[in-house]
Design goal:
Elements (H helix, E strand, L loop, with lengths): L4 H23 L1 H8 L3 H17 L1 H11 L1 H20 L4 H14 L3 H12 L5 H12 L1 H5 L2 H9 L2 H22 L17 H12 L4 H29 L5 H22 L2 H5 L2 H21 L5 H14 L3 H9 L7 H29 L4 H22 L9
Length: 401
């Protein structure tokens, strides 16, 4: 385990940054709206821009993983994330914010899949979901930092200075990843992967897309994490501001609690596939409870603050089952296709993260940013989870024991 510690710490660092960038818009949404004169639709697109960028480059990232390794790919792309953070810090309008988040999204495109790619080589398959849960749970330090701490920074020195500091941190993490991460464990004695020709890379990608059982996993993955992050990372802050009139730090405190709940949920789900000897049961259970909580929020008009907070926190806990889907997706592919396989699975998540925030932005704008608008958002997200679950019925289980 000691030999794996530098790897785990740097994987946590690079995913912390990605998490911060993902959800940072939520807590400072009113300030962004004021300073950049944003509409609800533009705010939704700014939330989605990050994930459209992630989606657009997943296939190249998978090819780069298999050809150049995760170490060099993540370090190089992180430099783009730094530039995107600087762009956001200098944003003058909605176009600048969307452009900056697009660049950051490209820069973070390899972060989470590097965890799956590297942990699948450094940890045995039966413990992969648990290892992923450690890293993904710890990565939510970035989510927590984008809550009350970012609200405090925005209120004291301004959100622009916060993104300038974040650019410097991103550069340090990129350098550290290049210097200390290795693509294979030191005890690995097998031959290094042969460098494939471009034609062989494309044939491997085609093989990935023809993998039996891939479609149902992609269908569930489209909605699972995207649903949770649409609430936590995009509309949680505006909902608390528009409906419950919370100020920046108060919103940050609630989002902090939601982020902590997500961390605890990830840790709880991590070993559940081994306890139940089924990943499919874990995913179905998490999706069902999440749908019920969203339905309750959709049906209740103007709930008291304490109840709204309780439901939001519970939702973030129970909707944290995405790592189990990731482990299930990774189990579909041999090691030689690991990079292309995990990034193909991640494309579904990225597409969901791009579509749901933007789509719900139109709902919020159509209903006037009030209680009714957010109830329709919750109902739409519950319906999406239901559709994903219906398709997931046909998924091939990858039981562990």
């Amino acid at each position: 385990m000691a030999s794996r510690l530098p790897l785990l710490l740097l994987l946590i660092a690079v995913t912390c940054l990605s998490q911060f960038y993902r959800v940072s818009n939520s807590v400072i949404a009113p300030e962004l709206t004021r300073d950049l004169d944003l509409s609800a639709r533009q705010l939704g697109w700014a939330g989605s821009a990050f994930f459209f960028a992630l989606f657009a480059v997943q296939i190249p990232v998978g090819m780069w993983f298999d050809r150049f390794g995760a170490r060099r790919t993540v370090a190089a792309l992180s430099l783009l994330a730094m530039l995107g953070s600087l762009w956001i810090a200098r944003a003058a309008d909605a176009a600048d914010l969307i452009a900056g988040r697009t660049i950051v999204g490209i820069g973070c495109a390899a972060s989470f899949m590097s965890v799956v790619f590297l942990c699948s080589r450094w940890f045995e398959q039966a413990r992969l979901a648990t290892a992923l849960s450690w890293v993904f749970a710890a990565s939510n330090i970035g989510t927590l930092a984008a809550a009350t701490p970012l609200a405090w920074v925005a209120g004291t020195v301004g959100w622009r200075h916060g993104f300038l500091g974040l650019a410097a941190v991103t550069l340090l993490v990129a350098v550290g990843f290049l210097a200390f991460v290795r693509d294979r464990p030191p005890e690995y004695l097998g031959p290094e992967a042969r460098k494939e020709t471009p034609a062989e890379i494309l044939r491997g990608l085609w093989e990935v897309w023809r993998t039996p059982g891939l479609g149902p996993v992609l269908s569930m993955h489209f909605f699972a994490y995207a649903t949770m992050l649409t609430v936590l990372g995009v509309w949680g802050g505006p909902y608390l501001y528009d409906v419950h009139k919370l100020d920046g730090v108060e919103r940050g405190n609630v989002l902090l609690a939601m982020g902590v709940a997500q961390i605890l949920g990830i840790l709880a789900y991590g070993p559940m596939d081994r306890v139940l000897r089924s990943r499919k049961k874990v995913v179905f259970g998490g999706a069902a409870i999440s749908m019920v909580l969203l339905a309750v929020m959709a049906l209740m008009a103007n709930p008291p603050l304490w109840l709204a907070v309780m439901l939001l926190v519970a939702f973030c806990f129970f909707c944290a089952y995405g790592t189990v889907i990731v482990a299930q997706g990774r189990a579909l592919f041999p090691d030689r296709l690991a990079g292309r396989g995990v990034t193909t699975v991640n494309m579904a998540q990225c597409l969901g993260l791009a579509v749901l925030p933007a789509g719900t932005g139109y709902i919020v704008e159509a209903f006037g940013s009030g209680d009714t608008a957010y109830r329709w958002v919750f109902a739409t997200l519950a319906g999406g989870l239901a559709l994903g679950s219906i398709a997931y019925v046909r998924a091939r289980d990858s039981a562990t024991g």
